[in-house]
Amino acid sequence: MRRFLIAVALLLGILFVIGHFTEMQSIWDTLKKGNWRFISLAGLVELLWLINLGATYQAIYHALGIHDRLKRLTLLASAANFTNVVAPSGGFSGMAVFISEARKTNLPSGKVTLAGILFLLLDYAAFLCVLTLGLFVLFRRNDLNAPEIIASLILFCLALGLTIMIYIGMRSPLSLGKILAWMARNINRIIRPFLHRAYLSEKRAFDFSNEVAEGLSVLRKNPRNLFIPFLHTLLNKILLVFILFLIFVAFKAPLSIGTIIAGWSMGYLFMIISPTPAGIGFVEGAMTLTISSFYVSLSTATILSLAYRGVTFWIQLLIGFLAFRSLENLIKPNLTN
């Protein structure tokens, strides 16, 4: 069954690429017009971003009292990004990659799931720090509109919802178990017409909540352990902003730190809240409109947005595809709970 699901995910990836082939061709034609030295450097920074992504998960694992190797977690994070794109489900398909590998290596799935939730929360928190700067730039330049404000509020609500769930888990594993059981019940209701059976066990949800609560108890004793993972997520954002900076240099666009931060912030914001996988269409549109409002021509802003996405999305998708394909060949590491 596991190999069948992997085959399905890989097939979805191939279909995704075929469905977006025209966009890929357009991005490739755009990249060829830039300075390849700076574009190549942007690609190297993207690889550094992926390694730091694995280091972020490693730091979160360590904070929860579980351990895994950086190479393995980097591959898992890349594979999770791939599945989140080809099988979008609000991040759950990517989390399923971690949970599946946790079961293979006898890691507590509850703690691993908690690590995924904490990653999202820290990622949102780090992004909100940069987003605040972006919104300030827009406000200062009289270009802050309702869509940006509404999108920012939606992101804040998402972060608040994750915080509340973690707080409930800290206070009462039973209450968290009820929430997870309710989620399992609704997921079963959706999937039952296709599988003709319950996909998730509601009883398992309560056992699962106890594992999550155990991880939270470790965290509660020393919450400062989350400081290092937060720094990693903040570094991730800085690296992505730096990639956009290199793209500006590669295409000799007018440089302005405020423009770069505001343009990147709006692109990343709409990547999170957009209904399309990884914000396809929305990210490019938001970045183009924001950058073009800062004394950059619309054609140049479009080129910058497409080139940025070529480096940060399509290269990442290719690496994720290769990482997902290699999951079966991962050597089981020595782990300690």
Radius of gyration: 20 Å
Compressed to H and E, one letter per element, the order equals HHHHHHHHHHHHH
pLDDT averaged over residues: 80
Largest sheet: none
| Total of DSSP H or I helical runs spanning 4+ residues | 13
**Segments where pLDDT lies below 50 for 5+ residues?**
331-337
Class inferred from helices and paired strands: mainly alpha
Report the helical percentage: over 70%
Number of extended strands:
0
Shape: globular
N-end to C-end Cα span: 27 Å
Beta fraction: under 5%
What assembly state would you assign to the polypeptide chains in this entry?
single chain
Descriptive notes:
With 337 residues, this protein is mainly α. It has a domain at 2-12 and 39-108 and 126-168 and 227-329. The chain contains 13 helices and no strands. α4 (70-86) packs antiparallel against α5 and α8 (173-195) packs antiparallel against α9. The longest helix is centred in the middle third of the chain and has 32 residues, at 109-140. The protein is globular, with a radius of gyration of 20 Å. The model is unreliable at 331-337 (pLDDT under 50).
